[in-house]
Amino acid sequence: ELKRFPTLQSDIATAANEALEKFHDESRRTVHRLVEMESSYLTVEFFRKLNTEPEKNSNAQHGTGSSNSDRYTDNHLRKIGTNVSAYVNMVCDTLKNSIPKAVVHCQVREAKRSLLNRFYAQVGRREREQLGKMLDEDPSLMAKREAIAKRLQLYKSARDEIDSVAWK
To answer: Boundaries of each GED domain copy (predicted)?
Structure first.
């Protein structure tokens, strides 16, 4: 629809970019807070829910050259690494869901509200010629519309006058 009005389309695009930029820093701060919150809060429940695998007898896996304590340490470290990796993946998944919501909440929604307020104020102040230029409207078409609007107003006032006389 806006392709018919290239000047208006350009004004809207410029205003939208300015509005988004205005709330960009707030959005960035909120995202940083979310990441800090997730990285500093260790969820103990996550580790309680992890499936604990029974420790395997490592004689079959390793050669006879390593001692039982080395095999236990390797297996234990591997288990810790798996648990930490699973926790990091869970945090990443949480952030993948939370960050877009935070951006929409802090940036897009506020930019939309700001954009609407700006256009209400700016368009309301403009004169007819400025609005016509904004819409890239043909001057002869605009003059014809104004003449028709004046004629319509005359018809309405004539109808009101006839109605007021007819009912007395």
So the answer is: 77-168
**Dihedral, 111, 114, 119, 124 alpha carbons, nearest 10:** 170
Q: What's the structural domain count of the chain?
A: 2
25 and 107, same domain (yes or no): yes
81 shares its domain with 147:
no
State the pTM of this model. 0.45
What would the pLDDT profile of 87-115 be if each residue is shown by its tens digit? 888 888 888 888 888 888 877 888 888 88
Is 27:110 a contact under the CB 8 Å cutoff? no
76: containing domain: 2-54+72-137
CB atoms within 10 A of CB 8: 16
